[in-house]
Amino acid sequence: MSMTRKLFLTALMASIALLSIAMTSGCAKKDTKPEIVKIDFAYYNPVSLVLKEKKFLEEDLAKDNIKVEWIHSLGSNKSLELLNSKSADFGSTAGAAALIGKANGNPIKSVYVYSKPEWTALVVRSDSPIAKIEDLKGKKVAVTRGTDPHVFLLRALDSVGLSEKDIELVPLQHPDGRNALEKGDVDAWAGLDPLMASTEVDKGSKLFFRNADLNTYGVLNVREEFAKKYPAQVKQVIAAYEKARTWALQNPAEFKKILARDAKLNDAVATRVIQRTDLSGPVIGDKQKATIAAAGDVLKKSGVIKKDVDVPAIVNALIDPQYGITAK
Asked: What are 140-164's pLDDT values in tens digits?
């Protein structure tokens, strides 16, 4: 084979290789949108119920031929499981629960505040002699591990010099915890609305310890992989959430009806839940970092988070405001 022919073939092969790379790169650039967005809804996140009802997200994503799949979360721990298994791209949790997930290796980012609720308190039956935190010593207390009620319980105990070791903790999902309390199988329950409001209204159960400042924010989390690959869709989801939050504030009566219908609550219970849910601050940032870090210190002290975990670093890695709205 002549030198000229060799050079020609070499140049031809190089051109084909470059063309192949260009075509592959071009295909990759075009493939920047997911076919479907998987997002949770939860009764402890009433704004998610509005978002699902009004189809704001479906309307926005339909422009790009992206579908929406809704998945029901029973608690922050279940939402974190959905995110970790990639069964959901977006999940609703309490801020402290998101911290626990992040500290345990769940690759998530908290990108939006859907509420600042007083959604948990320590609850006993109407005839219970328990009246203060110290009375829980040696008692059976139902709680869902890895959720804001769990964090609330730990912080309450810590405030009077007690810890989880001083009680008999009974790990149950939120609905089962309520049932156990009402049946007398446990002495107290770290409750969660709307179940907490239901037992309060329907059974006369008492919220014997309340402290709204110990409740961490309700945050929307996204899988890091999804956020990195589809940042535009993260912004679209947050924008749709903003439409739902604004609608809820502007239409309080209809908002309550949606919550009551979906969560199967009577009007009195739905009213109480709405009264305990502050929707005025959707911006995520330093306030959430401070509250979640404070919860993290107690979680570390209680052994829920390992002693060698750098809580401030985890919180900084968790809270990511770049996709959401900014303070005005």
From this structure: 999 998 889 999 999 999 999 999 9
Q: What is the CA radius of gyration of the chain?
A: 24
Q: Does residue 34 have a cis bond before it (omega within 30 degrees)?
A: no
Whether residue 147 contacts residue 176, with contact meaning beta carbons closer than 8 Å, is answered with no
Angstrom distance (rounded) from CA 297 to CA 286: 17
Six-digit token string for 160: 């009077």
pTM of this structure = 0.84
Residues in the chain: 328
What's the number of CA atoms in the CB half-sphere (13 Å) around residue 83?
32
Q: Which residues contact 161 (CB under 8 A, 6 or more apart)?
A: none
Contacts of 5 (CB under 8 A, 6+ apart): none
Amino acid identity for residue 313 in this structure: A
Supply 245's token pair: 């939050």
Within the chain, residue ranges assigned H as helices are 3-30, 46-54, 56-62, 76-84, 95-103, 148-159, 174-183, 195-203, 224-229, 231-250, 252-262, 267-275, 286-301, 311-318
DSSP one-letter code for 264:
T
